[in-house]
Protein: histidine kinase
Organism: Paenibacillus hemerocallicola
Amino acid sequence: MKIQQRMAFHFTYQLIFYALLMVAITLLACVLFFQNMTSNEIRRNFPVGVLQQIAQEAHYKDGTIQITPEWDKLIEEKGMWLQVISAEGEVIYAVNTTPHHTLPASYSIAQLLDIQETRTFGTYAVHTQLNFAFQDPLLYMLGYPSPDLDQLVAWFDAYGQHGIVRSEAVSHLDRRLLETGSYLQVIDPESQIVQGIGDRTYVQKAYRQLDILAIQQSPSNYDTNIVAHRDKLSGMTWILYTPHAAGAPLKHPVMEKATRGLVWITVLILLLALPISIWHGYRYGQPLILFAGWFERMGRGQYDQVLTAKDMRKVFRRNGMMRICYRLYKEVIQSFYQMAHQLAQTEKERERLEKAQAEWMSGISHDLRTPLATIQGYGYMLESLPEQWSHEEMRIMGSTIREKGEYMLELISDFAMIHQLKQGDSIMELRKMDLDELVRCSVLKYVNDVTMSGYQFLYIGDERPLLAKADETWLRRLMDNLLSNAVKHNPPGVVVTVSVGMMNDKAYIRVIDNGKGMDEETLNHLFNRYYRGTNTEESTDGSGLGMSIAKTIVEAHGGEIHVQSKVWQGTKIEIILPC
């Protein structure tokens, strides 16, 4: 797998993991929020809110109803009972009805209407919820014993007369109500208060008619509980106010279970996230720290010390395998190592070139100083007493001055050419030309030069024109360099053979001589710009740039140059040029 793919994979699954973590935390927060809302709603409307939740969450199919077991458990814990009545009045679902033997298995219309009107059934307070969510309507009845209601009925039976409290029992009932902080109101059919007995603080609260109903529906919103008993004969209603006993907060059992599950999942994800984060930090941090050390050493130029022995132990095991935390950056480490190696080699090469350049500059300064000293000496001689010198001596002085001047001009020309060749292709004007004719003319110039009478030049050309894409001026300079080198570094009597032709759809030029040849060291450094051969007898005879210039010209044409030579077995130079 490539490094781009590995990096994408690692960071993708890390992103997915933390995205799932954020989703889990968000879900947990939402569930906690809705649980709190639902629990508050149940608490405010208990037990009506419980009945509404049960009716909403129930499932009904083929005459069978299913309710979450947690609701059954809550009903049993609260000492309540639940019945679900079908459209035919049959009880199709019941919870905790066994302890309550008076509950029937079916209900008549009269019983259901009475329960709906009085909100009681026998000694039980009853809340009902008619649900139309399914094809047939279902009636949910939630009943529970009401000690306050039982007490109120008992007081009505013991102290009531014609729907009000008997006068002789008022003081006794007042004491009992004050002991519990309760208050009793007797209201006539026109909602007028006929009697008020007990704790008078309830009178100050001045509950309105709808407040009475609201307390019955949502008792947790008030600090008071109420129960009511209506006497059908007299039409009087007894209302008992008692202090609200705050118990433990009620919670939605299903939501609570889901919350616990999400809490555990979130905790597990957080526990997993911690070691994974540490592992990721170590995995991604260690290589970066290592790279920082490498860059620091590279900045100081310590290319050969970039990968220290300590770093190698960190990155590789004893068996040579890369450690796991560095495998993600395998290509980076390998490229870094190669770059450091190349930079180290480049630095060594730069130092070698600087040393060679210094040596070459020292040689060049010597080469320039020697002819200049000769020219200067002859100048002094001619300036002082020119009439004392004969014509022959004057001719020799002039010839020497000319030769030294030409040599210095050659050096300057080589320097200018090196500068031009550094500019690359911009100085080349490549066009189709006859290579055979150019080489033949270059050889013919040396054949016709009387100063070269001690050397023999042979030319082997092609019968047909040999067309190549080249720069004529630079190719002429190339041939001059090769032929002058063959003469300069060999004694008279040497045979120089020049040939041109085609080979593998490319043109070639060969310059072969049977002279002194070159040793291995000179051959290896032949194209080095700052190297001068060890077998050059005259120190002023050449700048050491000729073969370097020749190679640069060939490469600028997209060609190749090869040299073969052995001491006292001659030299063969072959140039390959594209056609």
